[in-house]
C-alpha cells in the first residue's frame, strides 16, 4: 500500500510539473507573439512616418518648383516691361481683339532697325549701299544703246572698242613645261617643292582666266555685229564695259574694268618671269 501511495504522489507531482512547463511555454509563446506584434506595429509606424516624410518632401519640392516658376514668370514680365520701356515699339501686345492687334501692327515702322535682328548699325549702311548699286545698275541697263547725236559714239561702239582694246593687251598663255627644270626637282624622299605646286596651280588658274577673257570678248564683238546671239553672260560683260564695272565677278578682283585689267597684268608678270 505504501508503494502505491508513493507512486500516486510521484505521478501527481510529475503531472503538476508538466502542467507548469506547458504554462511556461504558453506564456513564452504569448510573449513572443506580443513582441512580434509590437515589432510589426513599430515597422508600420516607421513606414507610415517615412511615407509621411516623403509626402512632405514631395509637397515641399512641388511648392519650391511652383515658387521658382512664379519667380521666372515675374522675371520674364519684368524683362518684357523693361524692353517696352527701352524700346517702346517692339513688344507682344497684351490685347485680345483683332482690331487692337491690327492697330499695333499699323503703328510699327516701315523700315526696321538692324539692332532688332542682332546686327550692327553698319549693316544698315551696307544694305543701303547694295540697294543703291542695284537701283543705279537697273537705271543704266534701261538706257538706250543708240545716242541722239550722230557724231557721238553709241554704246555698241564703246563696248566694241573697249573689247578690242582689252584683247590687244591680253597676255598669251603660259606653258608650264617651258619653266626652269630646277623647279620640278625632287628631294631624296621623292618630294617636290611645295612652292612649285602653288606655282602650277596659279598658272593653271590664270590660263583658264585668259581663256574666258578671250572667248567672251571675241563673242561679244561678234554679238555686237550681229553674227551670234547676245547671251545673258555676254550681256553682263557688255554692260560691265559700258558702266566701268568689274568683269567676271566670280573670278575678278579690283573695282572697275580698267583697275581689274591693271591688277591682272601685275599678277601675270611675275608668273611669266
Automatic annotation (TrEMBL):
Pfam families: Dynein_C. GO terms for molecular function: dynein intermediate chain binding; dynein light intermediate chain binding. Gene3D superfamilies: 1.20.1270.280. GO terms for cellular component: dynein complex. Residues 49-88 have a biased composition (Acidic residues). Residues 14-89 are annotated as: Disordered. GO terms for biological process: microtubule-based movement. InterPro entries: DHC, Dynein_C. It comes from the Eukaryota. Residues 130-246 form the Dynein heavy chain C-terminal domain. Residues 16-46 have a biased composition (Basic residues). This is Dynein heavy chain C-terminal domain-containing protein. It comes from Elysia chlorotica.
